[in-house]
Write a structure and sequence with these properties.
Structural class of chain B: mainly alpha
Shape of chain B: elongated
Largest sheet of chain A: 6 strands, mixed
Bound molecules: adenosine-5'-triphosphate, magnesium ion
Strand content of chain B: under 5%
Largest sheet of chain B: none
Protein name (chain A): ABC transporter ATP-binding protein
Organism (chain B): Lentzea flava
CATH superfamily of the largest domain in chain A: P-loop containing nucleotide triphosphate hydrolases
Keywords (chain A): ATP-binding, Nucleotide-binding, Transport
Strand order of the largest sheet of chain A: 5-6-7-3-8-9
Number of strands of chain B: 0
Oligomer: heterodimer
CATH architecture of the largest domain in chain A: 3-Layer(aba) Sandwich
Keywords (chain B): Membrane, Transmembrane, Transmembrane helix
Largest interface: A-B, 38 and 27 residues
Protein name (chain B): ABC transporter permease
Strand content of chain A: 25-35%
Number of helices of chain B: 12
CATH class of the largest domain in chain A: Alpha Beta
Order of helices and strands of chain A: EEEHEHEHHHEHEHEEHEHEEHEH
Number of domains of chain A: 2
Shape of chain A: elongated
């Protein structure tokens, strides 16, 4: 039997679908008591990894465990781990309540639990409606209700905010945080850091099937760089002066300004004064988390900007 | 396991498929029953008025005592049990199609547990379909037959047993095929083609090649053999001494050409259902649910 630790562990997980390597040598541990964000751009391998944790996809190599055991050794898995994987796994002509009663029976919890989780996710009034007529957000809520049926110790959610209205997202946020605070484990995937930034304490960031960052969100924040954007009278003179002082990370921006990293604006202004360069404008810039995320993941399927139309009329839109 | 069986039972009762397929099943059985009675009466009238006395000498009883309805009923059961087979075929392929299989596997101790629970529930449904088939078939036959052509109480019981067994086995076979070919349309088309066309052509070829005994070992041949042999046995038990050539003809009429004894036929088909289910289990066990 499982050890009840609430730990979710991925050990060197690799999954290949034919020639496509979806996940490559991925390792991380998710601990109870906090919400862990599992982040990566489209096609990074998030869904595949979560499905490996849940025993739905067989890893090509590596091991996935929940409470110290592979999924199929959990005994009554519905009572240990609840999962939202997609808002699609419903029979369209079954009512929400009947859907939940089917799985309540499978997990071995009383039918009353079905109505309780329906109320919890705000679907109480739609209980007897056929799921085929549900909106995406309602299906997402029903999927969450299904995951909560067995009052599980571990929650694994794949993009659960998909289709939720702002109120639903806010509710989900507080719900997951309080769930984690009860000493349970919550793993939630997203392709948007901003979406989960306020919810998660830990992050696992992956790109192209590999781990790019793994640790507390605060640690990621500390990696944020500050830059000073400065508009000097003589770009070259200031750059030379700064380099002479050992500042190497200097970049010329397209608008003619200099971007100087790893120093504060006072340092730049003092250097300019010593070099006899006037400053027309100076500004300190925080690189936000989202940009850091972009840098870490550098979109596998990033699109191109649309090519300029050569026949475009001058001033057509201007 | 009890929990999973209850879950699977709820899955079948909370959608309309069970009665959506049960209605045409009942209509078919009833219609076939009515036609069997009418056709039997026509045949017996014809035999009584013409000079087929030699045949009646063979059979040792007068034509109006021939239990000809047995043959029509055996055929009716063979055809009607296609519906419970289709119902079974949707069990696993339907869940894969609707993507509910994800939650099913997430809430079961193992995939094998989930599949076995499903199989048990579909055995029950096979029995329900079998009883419904027998009921409506019986009503149809009784309405249009004269009593001389109907089986006695023991005969009815034996036929009902064959019908329920046959329906259960066909359902189990369907469940296996649905797991083996996880695609609803593909599964159903294949099953219908095989049971209605392919194997009948095969029977014809095997008979032509003079190896009819092989038929009794094929899926459709063995399941038809189960009901057909029961029908022939019942018919012969009320007739006199019958020469082997006539018995062969009777077997062919009952759809049990080349078939083994009824219980052997049932075992052979159970073997087929087992093989298919094992294959379906192997496929499902290693399948990535993405
Ligand atoms: N069944 C499958 N067969 C073949 N390739 C697959 C299969 N499932 C996933 N892949 C591939 O594996 C890679 C990772 O896919 P995955 O769905 O895990 O990404 P994701 O991070 O969940 O993306 P998204 O943000 O779009 O949901 C992709 O290149 C995808 O095409
Ligand atoms: Mg995904």
């Amino acid at each position: 039997m499982h050890d009840g630790s609430g730990l979710v562990v991925a050990q060197n997980l690799t999954k290949r679908f034919g020639s496509v390597t979806a996940v490559q040598n991925l390792s991380f541990t998710v601990s109870p008591g906090s919400v862990t964000g599992f982040l990566g751009p489209n096609g990074a391998g998030k869904t595949t990894t979560l499905r490996m944790l849940l025993g739905l996809v067989k890893p090509t190599a590596g091991l996935a465990t929940i409470n110290g055991r592979p999924f199929h050794q959990l005994g009554q898995p519905g009572r240990v781990v609840g999962a939202v994987l997609e808002a699609q796994g419903f029979h369209p002509s079954r009512s929400a309540r009947n859907h939940l009663r089917v799985y309540a029976a499978a997990i071995g919890v009383p039918d009353a639990q079905a109505d309780q989780v329906l109320g919890l996710v705000g679907l109480g009034t739609a209980a007897d409606r056929k799921v085929g007529g549900f909106s995406l957000g309602m299906k997402q809520r029903l999927a969450l209700a299904t995951a909560l049926l067995g009052d599980p110790q571990v929650l694994v959610l794949d993009e659960p905010a998909n289709g939720l209205d702002p109120e639903g997202i806010a509710w989900l946020r507080t719900f997951l945080q309080s769930y984690a605070r009860m000493g349970r484990t919550v793993l939630i995937s997203s392709h948007l850091l901003a979406e989960v930034e306020q919810t998660v304490d830990q992050v696992v960031i992956i790109s192209r099937g590999q781990t790019m960052f793994y640790g507390p969100l605060d640690q990621l924040r500390q990696q944020q760089q500050r830059r000073v954007l400065v508009q000097p009278s003589d770009v070259n003179a200031l750059a030379t002066a700064l380099r002479a002082e050992g500042v190497q990370t200097i970049e010329q921006l397209p608008d003619g300004r200099l971007a100087v990293s790893d120093v504060d604006s006072k340092h730049v202004a003092d250097s300019a004064l010593r070099a006899g360069v006037s400053i027309y404008g100076i500004q300190e810039e925080q690189v936000d988390l989202e940009r850091l995320f972009f840098q870490l993941t550098s979109g596998q399927y990033a699109g191109y900007a649309p090519a300029p139309n050569p026949y475009q009329q001058q001033g057509g839109w201007a | 396991m009890g929990n999973l069986v209850q879950a699977e039972l709820r899955k079948t009762t909370t959608t309309g498929l069970w009665w959506g397929l049960l209605i045409p099943t009942a209509v078919l059985a009833l219609g076939w029953g009515l036609a069997t009675g009418l056709f039997g009466k026509f045949f017996v009238d014809f035999a009584s008025t013409s000079d087929l006395e030699e045949v009646s000498d063979f059979l040792g009883v007068t034509p109006d005592q021939w239990k000809v309805t047995l043959f029509g009923m055996a055929r009716a059961i063979n055809i009607s049990t296609i519906f419970p087979m289709v119902f079974g075929a949707m069990a696993i392929s339907g869940e894969i199609n609707r993507r509910t299989i994800t939650t099913t596997f997430l809430t079961a101790p193992s995939r094998m547990h989930a599949m076995l629970a499903k199989m048990l529930v579909y055995v029950l449904w096979g029995a329900i379909y079998g009883l419904a088939i027998m009921l409506f078939l019986g009503i149809g036959v009784v309405l249009t037959s004269s009593s001389g052509q109907l089986p006695d109480a023991g005969g009815w019981a034996m036929l009902a047993l064959a019908c329920v067994l046959s329906s259960i086995l066909m359902t189990m076979f369907g469940v296996g095929v649905g797991a083996l070919i996880p695609n609803v349309a593909g599964t159903i088309v294949l099953l219908l083609l095989y049971f209605l066309v392919i194997e009948n052509v095969l029977h014809f070829v095997l008979a032509y090649l003079e190896v009819p005994t092989v038929i009794g070992f094929l899926p459709n041949g063995s399941i038809n053999g189960l009901t057909g042999s029961v029908a022939v046995d019942l018919f012969l038990s009320s007739a006199g001494v019958v020469p082997p050539e006539v018995e062969d003809v009777l077997r062919a009429i009952a759809g049990a050409g080349g078939a083994l004894d009824w219980w052997w036929s049932g075992l052979v088909f159970l073997g087929w259902a087992g093989v298919v289910f094992a294959g379906g289990w192997a496929v499902t066990q290693s399948k990535d649910i993405t």
